[in-house]
Design a protein that fits this description.
alpha+beta, Rossmann fold, 7-stranded mixed β-sheet
């Protein structure tokens, strides 16, 4: 028998809070009924007076759930829909075409500023970037006199360690991991979020002062020193700059510094494939991101191959940033290979089996689960009875084990079943997505997963308009 669903009573506070946070050309507009949630959300954005051309709206309402946060969140997506779940009572669904998201948030998460800064807001900005005209690139950014030095390299190349060493030489740290680029009225701009800098444990041999700081386990499972902006060890931080130089960095044992000027075509060839893939419905946004990369590729760019301690390499880079960047580019030299972003949300998992029946209205089922394909006619009839006769459904095989939960969030509904999978639906567009275990995908379990969700389970209560804070 399936475990009972988590029922989360709605919070009772009647307050309407509206906040707007501009960041890299987008206004992140929050509506909520929780002062704690508004404060936590706002703490994850740097102060900014920039203008915004795109508005991404979030409606996040409190519930009285008390489930503990999971060790790692779940993100699943298809087309314009993205599901983010942080516990069985902390769930958000995003419509990337409509530039909006809704969610039900527990009091514990609403008060957890660290989680909003380290996990939720960076994930949100990354998810919404194509819709908002932002190009997120995997590079560290150091700033001197308002001019940005952007250092790209494969994961594990030592960008964070090098960033920390450069900060000790007077550079300001904008980001050691992800930098967000956008085109504004004053040209190309780069921005970063106030997330901790992450340094692996062996970094302590170069920076003994890290011994006074605690090693923690990061979301990806790595043990690391995470130096928060409030820490006495944190470098001087800055959150916007004008791009000035690009550096593609690679360590090679026993190599003295070797600088090579790169062509704009080589820079574009590195950064374009490293963009996170987008579904077809968001393809027009890719043109904007490519235009940003083309603009970025016009600034002086170099490849650096070397070996040495972080302090030695930082000294070489410091000296290089003060030198003339007019050397001729060499077309036959390639920078380090780019790092392709894995499809962690299973958004592009192939689903080659298609089913639809003329006796079941306009129900279209796409799946890579053979048992769902086998029972598609019966499932389509049930889906038509429950959700209408014009529905586009995708069923993807997934091994994640979800807790028991269900809820309605405005136009969206979701359900999680242990040992079966998850389902979420956008009733306005008629789009249903499910990630389910192939072993458990029999007709009985799938119809249970697809059944209508009661609005009382757990409940999404829009904040009442009235008192404004």
């Amino acid at each position: 028998m399936t475990a009972p669903m988590t029922a989360v009573p709605a919070a009772t506070a009647e307050v309407h809070i509206h906040r707007v946070y501009p960041f890299v050309g987008c206004a992140w507009e929050l509506t909520t009924d929780s002062h704690s949630l508004a404060a936590s959300f706002g703490s994850a954005f740097p102060e900014s007076d920039s203008t915004a051309g795109t508005v991404f709206r979030l409606d996040l309402q409190m519930n009285d759930g008390e489930d503990r946060l999971w060790t790692a969140p779940y993100f699943r997506a298809r087309d314009h829909m993205v599901l983010a779940a942080f516990s069985s009572t902390d769930v958000m669904i995003f419509d990337l075409l409509g530039c909006r998201g809704v969610g039900t948030i527990s009091r514990a998460l609403a008060e957890n500023r660290d989680h909003w800064r380290r996990v939720i807001v960076p994930a949100l900005v990354g998810l919404a970037s194509p819709s908002a005209g932002i190009a997120p690139l995997h590079c560290a950014t150091l700033v001197r006199n308002g001019m940005g030095l952007h250092i790209s390299g494969l994961s594990g190349a030592g960008k964070s360690t090098l960033s920390y060493a450069l900060a000790q030489r007077g550079f300001q740290l904008l980001s050691d991991d992800w930098t967000y680029f956008m085109r504004g009225s004053n040209g190309l701009q780069a921005a970063g979020l106030p997330v901790p800098i992450k340094l692996l444990p062996d970094t302590r041999r170069f920076f003994p002062e890290l011994g006074a700081h605690e090693i923690t386990r990061s979301l990806n499972g790595e043990l690391a020193y995470e130096i928060d902006i409030a820490s006495s060890l944190s470098p001087s931080r800055i959150y916007t700059c004008s791009p000035h130089r690009l550096l593609f960095y690679r360590r090679e044992p026993r190599s003295s510094p070797n600088w090579t000027r790169l062509t704009p075509e080589q820079v574009e060839a590195q950064f374009r494939p490293a963009l996170e893939r987008v579904p077809g419905c968001l393809a027009p946004a890719r043109e904007s991101q490519h235009a940003i990369i083309a603009e970025l590729a016009k600034i002086p760019a170099y490849s650096l191959v070397c070996d040495g301690s972080p302090q030695q390499i930082a000294a070489w880079i410091d000296e290089w940033t003060d030198s003339d960047a007019g050397a001729a580019a060499t077309a036959d030299i390639s920078p380090p290979p780019h790092c392709e972003i894995p499809d962690l949300m299973l958004r592009f998992a192939p689903a080659p089996l298609l089913s639809s029946g003329s006796d079941s209205g306009q129900i279209r089922i796409e799946t890579n689960i053979p048992s769902v394909h086998r029972h598609s006619s019966e499932l389509a009839r049930q889906l038509m009875n429950w959700h209408g006769d014009n529905l586009d459904c995708t069923f993807i095989e997934d091994r994640a084990n979800w807790p028991a939960a269900a809820g309605t969030l405005g136009q969206f509904s979701y359900r999680f079943l242990p040992d079966v999978g998850c389902m979420f639906i956008d009733r306005n567009s008629g789009r249903l997505v499910s990630f389910a275990s192939s072993a458990a995908a029999n007709l009985e379990s799938m119809t249970e997963l697809m059944a209508p969700v009661s609005s009382r389970q757990p409940g999404f209560r829009r904040a009442k308009t009235g008192k404004t804070s």
